[in-house]
Amino acid sequence: MRKKRRYKKLRWKPAILAFLILLGISSACLLLFGNSNTKSATKQATKSEKIVTKKAPVQKASAKKPPKKASEKPKPVTEKTVFLTFDDGPSPFLSRFTNLLQQEKVPATFFFIGENLNRIQPETAKAILASGSNIGWHSMTHDASLLYRKNSPTFLAEMEQARALGREKLGITSNLIRAPYGSTYLSSALHQETKDKGFTLLDWNIDSNDWRYKTNSARVVETVLHQANALAKQKEPLVILMHERKNTLEALPAIIHALKKNGYSFQAYKENTPFKLNFREH
């Protein structure tokens, strides 16, 4: 009986031993693969973290200054300098004026009315400046009854509005202005306020009368050249008042050719031009 019991005990020992061996192997496998997975997950997490935390390279601001515009340095003005100026635009004739000026290789100055700025695209305005011509403002309304009225004249407010609109719609900044019908109508106080606001005011010394001779371009040519001859004796630069009209467009080539023949050179009027002409100060 004792032998039988002893035999039974001995019979269970291998089974227990085998079970313990299998348990040990399983534990070792779990430990091995667990560590491997943990390391893999850690590596993956580290890699992901690097991707997330990696910053895009920051572009440094260029220390190089933009090139100065040629217009920043004023050109000398002599008695043989002429400034062609065109008021009341932009008009449907604007592109024809700019094309003609480019063909003749002469610049000009355009004074735009704020209410007309919807007729021009920013690219056109910038092309005018790039060609060597210039742009100024001619009020918002061109209405003398508002601009120069005794109580609350709108002149300065309209010029400021036109300047702001030009910056907003066309992307250009200009402080050059021309008073509709001339600065004669400005009071002394309003004239001073205009200067205080940083505006440069330009009038004229030749009136082409193109607004009068609407269907007679020959008379426009005659009128301009007659006044030019008179001013030549006074040795003054010429500032010619014209408008964006069809008759003016027809008269312009003859005016340009005659002035060139008489030794005149053409400039666009700029804010820093070393020649001032306005009726309030002359």
From TrEMBL:
It comes from the Bacteria. GO terms for molecular function: hydrolase activity, acting on carbon-nitrogen (but not peptide) bonds. Residues 80-267 form the NodB homology domain. InterPro entries: Glyco_hydro/deAcase_b/a-brl, NODB_dom, Polysacc_deacetylase_ArnD. One of its GO terms (biological process) is carbohydrate metabolic process. Residues 43-76 are annotated as: Disordered. SUPFAM superfamilies: Glycoside hydrolase/deacetylase. This is NodB homology domain-containing protein. It comes from Listeria kieliensis. The lineage of its organism: Bacteria, Bacillati, Bacillota, Bacilli, Bacillales.
